[in-house]
Amino acid sequence: MDYSDTLQKIHGVLSHKAAELEEQIARLERAKRDVEREQNLGVEEIRQILRPNLDESWTGSRAADFDEARDEAHTAMYRIFTDEYDRYIHKIDLKIFALDSEKGAVQAASWSADRADFLMEKGEEAVDALHSTINGLKGWLK
């Protein structure tokens, strides 16, 4: 069995996986910033729903109906731009956390691969440890 080729393939797979995870995390972080920016713009816009204040200058049943509809629209939009957006941002945060955890596992496997490189350099006296380390890494990659 050629440990050198096996380790080279393992390093390649780990490097590719780490780069893939970094890209996914970066895309999610950009998406989160975009959602937060949109949320802030939305909150600013919904403040306009209640303008102008018509309490003193407009009276009667039509004014009351209009004011009630305007308040309902404001409340609905406020819930969307706070509760719904916050839930979406939380989902993005959870996915980033999961990917960061996976990235940590890839880094740990990479350190094991580096250890296997070190053991391979030691030669014959480290063959058993090298074999065990490589088998562990193969199991991780499946």
From TrEMBL:
Pfam families: YwqH-like. It comes from Bacillus paralicheniformis. Residues 11-41 form a coiled coil. Keywords: Coiled coil. This is DUF5082 domain-containing protein.
